């Protein structure tokens, strides 16, 4: 395991910070004085890389002048590596550029964080086996829990990119059609079973060509970085709508991501094997190197931790998911966001959704002095995640969202 | 029914042209001399509206200078109406601007046509009842053909925008996982059951806000125009992958659209009622005015017509689909493309897919001197559509694509 790389920046050598020099994640920030721009988190500061590039400090030109990271993402792995090495050198202990760089550091406490990249399209996978078994048992019964294709295909569906929002954005409770089992007809109103899904998101940097599948190795090289991802879900809408074409409005109202893109390079020391294959994979999906990362993940509701799990619980890696995504000839683009699917561990206190933790709402969980089956208006849900190094951590920052009451819209229920 | 509006442009008053003055559809074209730009079809000519705007002839500024229609689409219904009225005046018989406009007309035969707008996201609905019954019978048996939600919800799923291509683009046969019923495990290779879906696509002009549903009347006003849409489908991939989260790679490899956006204004005289409701709709979906259009549609394979149907066969209108799409609070954006779902009539010669025409491949159809169960390499599939006026028609042009052999990629099948 690698050791802490010391930095001259305040807070960056603190073993509890998410943002040591080993991390250098990419976000978009603004302050009262500065319009939204690209920044790199270091300790409790943000390096204004737009100004750093303009000052000739980054070795790049016009790659981080937009208030999104897409231009750098599209530039490919060699440019990513050069940029990361250069930012690392600027911020390392003993850097000769310290005096030029210091004025470009902004206190994180003064900054507002924005969506770090333009989301081209959003796809959500279903690659956590315990989650698939849990949900399958509840929706279809234990005998049909894991669909027959599940051990062969990284099952996924296209989600909605227009409602991917950055952590801190309030989420309005969705309205929609639901049908109680005993009811003769559906009704329309606010979701009563609003839930989270604890996921990670892989972000595509370099694109692929329509009509040309990619190998797992090519897919791995296309991935720019990762975020935490909360795939908010309205379980009552989902149960009524999802047959035969999959989730639609139950997932379309919001997806929250953490504000910092943690690069594949920063996570490389924490690469981890997935679980054993239960059946052999088709050759196009075989991955020869460890495709997951050892990332500790947790869910908080209103400040109380209600679940802890790890990215290693996934059955398919992001590179395998991306390979399958492109396998038909589907063109992948810079800014595509691929949710891993809910990451549930083996026991209820490691499940990644309230649906699972409360077993469909039947066994509410304790949250401080209160209990919850599903999310109530005013509740704040927060995901956290980090990889643990030797005296340092590579963290994601929080992925947080508070639920606002449903909009007034056709209030009657039938 | 409205009558032909006479134009001074060659061919525009021909009763067989798709592009009389009544139509004025929007495309993007290039010639040897002209880079890609916005154009309006009129008879067998294209009006170079980029140059027309620059010359002060259109009454707009910087709305059609990009080689996409998105800026005008985002400008809203009042601007759309003003622009259409102005273009109509320029091209009408007796126009005082004829001498200024004539040099801006390009022969359609000299032009290459491009995708007319940037597709923000692509959603595909399932709003044809005969199609849903046919496919449901084949995939799930006659007793479960129409899902219980179908008469209440315009069922839809998110598709893939990165592979929406303009008519004339060759389509590579997709590869993917399939599993024969008797096989112990799936295999990987070229699709053997490649199909079309005859659809129309509605294009969102003005956006909606995240967290705010829209009414059917608001949704109707948001729709900029329509295209023909072929939702290419790999039935063998689809059958194996689609449970439980819906179609994914079976549809992700390509979607073709016709090159001309026919505006809602041009189609208004052809508005038509949909079928009777079999059960009452929830109030948010009730549409008080005719939401469909009387548009004759056909499918050709290698120049032979194999099916004829009409947009009136849809059970849900595009405005109802858009309303449902936004109902959860899902933000809709300029450039969103909403496929209607396959439009099948009551009999096999009016079905909108080969899957239905050949009943799952069991009864191949005659195509000239040959027969087909599904599409073979080299086959060209073409959709056509038009609304019939009194001595004129409002047509879409062709939506055509030829199938190329599958890519070389992991040729072994297991």
Describe this structure in words.
The structure is a homodimer of 414-residue chains. The first copy, chain A, is an alpha+beta fold and 414 residues long. The first copy, chain A, folds into two domains: 26-114, Fumarylacetoacetase, N-terminal domain (SH3 type barrels, Roll); 122-404, Fumarylacetoacetase-like, C-terminal domain (Fumarylacetoacetate hydrolase, domain 2, Alpha-Beta Complex). Chain A is 19% helix and 26% strand. The first copy, chain A, is built from eleven helices and 27 strands. In chain A, strands 6, 7, 8, 13, 14, 16, 17 and 22 form an eight-stranded mixed sheet that branches. In chain A, strand 23 and strand 24 form a beta hairpin. In chain A, helix 6 crosses helix 10 (318-326). Chain A starts with 25 loop residues before the first strand and ends in a 10-residue tail after the last strand. Chains A and B meet through helix 5, strand 7, strand 9, strand 10 and helix 7 of A and helix 5, strand 7, strand 9, strand 10 and helix 7 of B.
CATH topology of the largest domain in chain A: Fumarylacetoacetate hydrolase, domain 2
Integer tally of domains of chain A: 2
CATH homologous superfamily placement of the largest domain in chain A: Fumarylacetoacetase-like, C-terminal domain
Greatest contact between two chains: A-B, 72 and 72 residues
Percent of residues in β-strands of chain A: 25-35%
CATH architecture of the largest domain in chain A: Alpha-Beta Complex
CATH class of the largest domain in chain A: Alpha Beta
Helical percent range of chain A? 10-25%
- Rounded to an integer, what's the Rg of chain A over CA atoms? 21 Å
């Amino acid at each position: 395991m690698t050791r802490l790389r010391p930095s001259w920046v305040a807070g960056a050598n603190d073993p509890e910070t998410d943002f040591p020099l080993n991390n250098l994640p990419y976000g978009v920030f603004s302050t009262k004085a500065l319009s939204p721009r690209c920044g790199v988190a270091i300790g409790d500061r943000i390096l204004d890389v737009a100004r750093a590039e303009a000052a000739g400090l980054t070795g790049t030109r016009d790659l981080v002048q937009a208030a999104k990271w897409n231009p750098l993402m599209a530039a490919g792995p060699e440019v990513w590596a050069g940029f990361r090495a250069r930012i690392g050198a600027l911020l390392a202990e003993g850097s000769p550029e310290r005096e030029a760089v210091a004025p470009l550091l902004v206190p994180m406490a003064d900054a507002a964080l924005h969506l770090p990249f333009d989301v081209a399209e959003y796809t959500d996978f279903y690659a956590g086996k315990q989650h698939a078994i849990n949900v399958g048992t509840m929706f279809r019964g234990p005998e049909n829990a894991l669909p027959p294709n599940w051990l062969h295909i990284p099952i996924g569906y296209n989600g909605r990119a227009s409602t991917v929002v950055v952590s801190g954005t309030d989420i309005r409770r969705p309205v929609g059609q639901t049908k109680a089992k005993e009811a003769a007809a559906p009704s329309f109103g606010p979701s009563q079973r609003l839930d989270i899904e604890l996921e990670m998101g892989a972000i595509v940097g370099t694109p692929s060509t329509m009509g040309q599948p990619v190998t797992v190795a090519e897919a791995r090289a296309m991935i720019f970085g990762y975020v935490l991802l909360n795939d908010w879900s309205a379980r009552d809408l989902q149960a009524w709508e999802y047959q035969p074409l999959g989730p639609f409005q139950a997932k379309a109202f919001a997806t929250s991501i953490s504000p910092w893109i943690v690069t594949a390079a920063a996570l490389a020391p924490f690469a981890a094997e997935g679980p054993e294959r239960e059946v052999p994979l088709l050759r196009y999906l075989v991955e020869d190197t460890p495709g997951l990362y050892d990332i500790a993940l947790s869910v908080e509701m209103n400040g109380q931790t209600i679940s802890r799990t790890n990215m290693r619980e996934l059955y398919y890696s992001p590179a395998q998911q991306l390979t399958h995504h492109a396998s038909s000839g589907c063109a992948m683009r810079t800014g595509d966001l691929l949710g891993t699917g809910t990451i549930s561990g083996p026991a209820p206190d490691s499940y990644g959704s309230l649906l699972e933790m409360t077993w469909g709402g039947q066994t509410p969980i304790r949250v401080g002095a209160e209990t919850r089956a599903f999310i109530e208006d005013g509740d704040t849900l927060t995901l956290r995640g980090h990889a643990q190094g030797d005296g340092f951590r590579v963290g994601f920052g929080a992925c947080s969202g508070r639920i606002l009451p449903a909009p007034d819209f056709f209030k009657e229920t039938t």
